[in-house]
Amino acid sequence: MFDTMTLTKIVGGFCGALLVFLLGGWLASAVYGFYPARDSHAEGHEAVQGYVIPVETASAEAAPEVSVEEMTAEFLAAFANADAAAGESQFRPCAACHSLTAGENKTGPYLAGVVGRAVDSVEGFAYSGALEKVADVWTPENLNLFLANPRGFAPGTAMNFRGVPNLQDRANLIAYLAAHPG
């Protein structure tokens, strides 16, 4: 049943596959200019980049820094015109980790009554401790700063969310949350 011809076929198959992979690698190197990783500090073996993409360096004037006071004033104007119904669509990504039912924690704490609630105050939820270092109460202004850039507002937060970039969207979302008291 198992003879030398079967063994020869198996070894030949492995050798053939190895040859195909080696030739494929050689062909890819020739076509795309890919050079295998080498020690670039070794004498005579400098790695050559095939194509350099020119990138403009950012100047200091490109993005002027906005102060917290200016950001808060802009937010308050947007919050005065906020539409809670439009905030419902902004809450949909939040619903993956948060609930609007009091006492129902998911990956994140429930958000019913979050506007005006003390930070890190939901019973039964293990917070990272980063939020209480930057705020005491979830005022609309604090929620705005947090939702704009969670990791920038509270470095070390466990919340894995990039933020809501649009100011009016954040205002609508906070108005929606304010409409759901605990």
UniProtKB/TrEMBL annotation:
<keyword id="KW-0249">Electron transport</keyword>
<feature type="domain" description="Cytochrome c">
    <location>
        <begin position="82"/>
        <end position="181"/>
    </location>
</feature>
<protein>
    <submittedName>
        <fullName>Cytochrome c2</fullName>
    </submittedName>
</protein>
<dbReference type="InterPro" id="IPR009056">
    <property type="entry name" value="Cyt_c-like_dom"/>
</dbReference>
<dbReference type="GO" id="GO:0046872">
    <property type="term" value="F:metal ion binding"/>
</dbReference>
<dbReference type="GO" id="GO:0020037">
    <property type="term" value="F:heme binding"/>
</dbReference>
<keyword id="KW-0813">Transport</keyword>
<keyword id="KW-0479">Metal-binding</keyword>
<keyword id="KW-0349">Heme</keyword>
<dbReference type="InterPro" id="IPR002327">
    <property type="entry name" value="Cyt_c_1A/1B"/>
</dbReference>
<dbReference type="InterPro" id="IPR036909">
    <property type="entry name" value="Cyt_c-like_dom_sf"/>
</dbReference>
<keyword id="KW-0408">Iron</keyword>
<dbReference type="GO" id="GO:0009055">
    <property type="term" value="F:electron transfer activity"/>
</dbReference>
